[in-house]
Amino acid sequence: MGRRDRNGRRERVWRGVGVSDGAAVGRVLRVHGGAAGNVYRATLEEAEVRREIRRFHAAVRLSRRQLLAIKRRAEQLLGAEHAYIFDAHLLMLEDRKLIDDVEGHIRDERANAEWAVKVVTDKLLAVYAEIKDDYLRERSSDIEDVMRRLLVALAGDERAQRLTDDAILVADELLPSAVADLDFSRVRAVASDAGGWTSHAAIIARGLGIPAVVGLRDLFRHARTGDEIAVDAVTGEVTLRPSAETAARVRETAGRLRSTSSAADAATARDARAPARTTDGVEIVLRANVELPAEYEGVSRFGARGIGLFRSEFLYAQHGGAPGEDEQVAAYAELARVAGADGARVRLFDLGGDKLAPAAQEAERNPALGLRAIRLCLARGDMLRTQVRAVLRAAARGKLDLVLPMISDVSEVRAVRRVVEEERANLRREGTEAGDVGVGAMIEVPSAVLVADRLAREVDFFSLGTNDLVQYTLAVDRSNGEVADWFRTLHPAVLASISRTVAAAADANIPVVVCGEMAGTPAYAVVLLGLGARDLSMTATAIPRVRRALEGVDAAGATEIARECLQASGAGEAEEIVRARFAERWGALFPPKSLPAPKGEGYNFPEIGHTVSTSS
Ligand code: PEP
Ligand code: MG
After folding, report:
1. Residue 601's CB: how many other CB atoms inside 10 A?
2. Residue 516 alpha carbon, nearest atom of ligand 1
3. What pLDDT was estimated at residue 561?
């Protein structure tokens, strides 16, 4: 029989990878590519229903007028035979059933028009997704198009637009380009079909302290906006239309996690900003990684020593393209203010690849190896110069450094340094004040590791990006859930690369800050300590638990374990060493029973409040 929800529909369970702690019960908001646009849910007063239906009709009329105009232009430019596509859209807007259904939803649920449009079109999309005929199935893109047009037409309305506070985002893939305009303060959880532990959906969710499960494969196709849904990131289970028992269980988990983690975090936050100190007296600086303004508040709350990595491409995403120089100056100056005396490290736009493809860039066959990051910055000289000028200008108002993403050769560093000096001279000539900025290189591809000694002589610091380092060293796509079991952070090749980079930085007497997701995971942070890292940057919400882990271990022990891992025959053996040795030495922090057999990112250290992941 199976369990059923209160409407008698059978609940359905998906298993994915929990990548950000917590649990929540709420309502599905389907977002394609992460773009929710202007969808929110509001409950209307009875008296408002008629006006809302009129508003919906006005949006339909506006959409029709726009489509007719577009169709006329297409006929003139391309000929009548190419304009037929718009007939399909026009027909949809005249479809009585569609109009009646939206009206019915507004009336029966007392819902706002945006929500009603989304619910009705999502239902239609789910039907189309099941159709065997390829041609018909592809018509679903027309439905999406019409839905988007209607939502934009409705957005002309002045009323405040926001998500209800029980929204659970269900996405096929959550792209940085699409999340920038979401009101995350209202999102209770995230569930996405694609993604792995270091995918951007995961990073964003952790940064905002929102529970998230990724790698759910086909949840998106089955979920409909408005459905009830329960997300448990501890077990990696997502239940659509949960029964009363399931919903109660997940709510109970959510409450328990909230109270334990906030009590522990409050205790740790008392020592905010002091370096973490191991039991044998080694100090480790903990900084924050930042993407969205919503995360700024956490920088001081969790005691970060400044901002170790600002992923500036999110600024690009929020702006819908490269922001102008003045706008960037304002953003970086604000960042420097938030970071305070310890400063902020602004990474040049890390565009392309799995991140954000700039407009006008053709789809690449192999984007992770394509025109991305530093390559794109150098290819688009104007964009680079604008960003460099903005950072120099903002650095006159606070402490800022520049980070160069995906460096693979010394020549790239030299090319950017030339631009920095030229723009500094230009600003001087213009009489505009510029501050000092250090220049650092991301070490995240194998070639950079292999020439780290030479790179170290050209830069002021290293930023070790373990997410891409694992991806490129092991040739495993970080955002593809299908290969999550191959994403092995403790692979000896990865550990050797980290060790070599740390040694090269020490020889050249420059600092190295580790800023990949590895740094924000307690057990991995201890391995990093053992490999010689003393400066870690992570999503601010992770700082308290990483601090607790580091303060409960001794650096000498961590070094011994790291050495043993470096000699391991492969990832599995290194994972086993960590499991066994951690339990022997620091059993209270890492009790063996809580650790499932290692497999991919399958470590679970709930005793210090962080589920790394639960691939099964
Ligand atoms: C990394 O690759 O580890 C990193 C810090 O940068 P991103 O996750 O933005 O690629
Ligand atoms: Mg990277």
Report:
1. 26
2. 3
3. 98
Q: Cα separations (Å) of 427 from 131, 182, 451, 480?
A: 60, 36, 33, 44
Distance, CA 291 to ligand 1 centroid (Å)? Answer: 11
CA 445 to ligand 2 centroid distance, Å: 9
Tell me whether residue 434 is exposed, middle or buried, using C-beta atoms within 10 angstroms of its C-beta: 0 to 12, 13 to 18, 19 or more: buried
- The C-alpha atoms of residue 579 and residue 592 are separated, in whole angstroms, by 7
Write the DSSP assignment of 336-360 as a string of letters: HHHHGGG-EEEEPP--STTS-PPTT
Q: Which of 62-71, 240-249, 259-268 has the lowest mean pLDDT?
A: 259-268
Least confident segment among 236-250, 341-355, 385-399: 341-355
Record the tokens describing residue 175, joined without a space.
């792209």
d(CA 303, CA 432): 34
466 CA closest ligand 1 atom index: 3
Which listed ligand is nearest to 519 at the C-alpha? Answer: 1
Q: Which residues, including other chains, have CB under 8 Å from residue 138's CB and lie 6 or more apart?
A: none
The ligand 1 atom nearest the CA atom of 517: 3
Any bridge partners for residue 10, and if so which?
4
Contact present, 531 and 504 (Cβ < 8 Å): no
Nearest to 334 by CA among 320, 318, 350: 318
- For the cut 60, the answer to whether the pLDDT of residue 455 exceeds it is yes
Task: Indicate the pTM of the whole model.
Answer: 0.75
> What type of residue sits at position 410?
V
- CATH numbers and ranges of domains, the chain: 12-32+159-260 (3.50.30.10), 46-155 (1.10.274.10), 283-440 (3.20.20.60), 444-616 (3.20.20.60)
Q: Is 444 in the pocket of ligand 1 (CB under 6 A)?
A: yes
- Residue 37 burial (CB count, 10 A): 19
pLDDT at 350: 94
Residue 575 in contact with ligand 1 by CB distance below 6 A: no
CA-based nearest residue to 610, from 211, 142, 298: 211
DSSP 201-246: HHHHHHHHT--EEE--SSHHHH--TT-EEEEETTTTEEEES--HHH
In this structure, the residue with its CA closest to atom 1 of ligand 1 is 465
Nearest CA to ligand 1 atom 4: 465
The residues assigned a catalytic role are 200, 515
Who's near 377: CB < 8 A, 6+ residues apart? 348, 349, 383, 384, 387, 404, 416
Q: State the pLDDT at residue 316.
A: 85
Radius of gyration of the chain (CA): 25
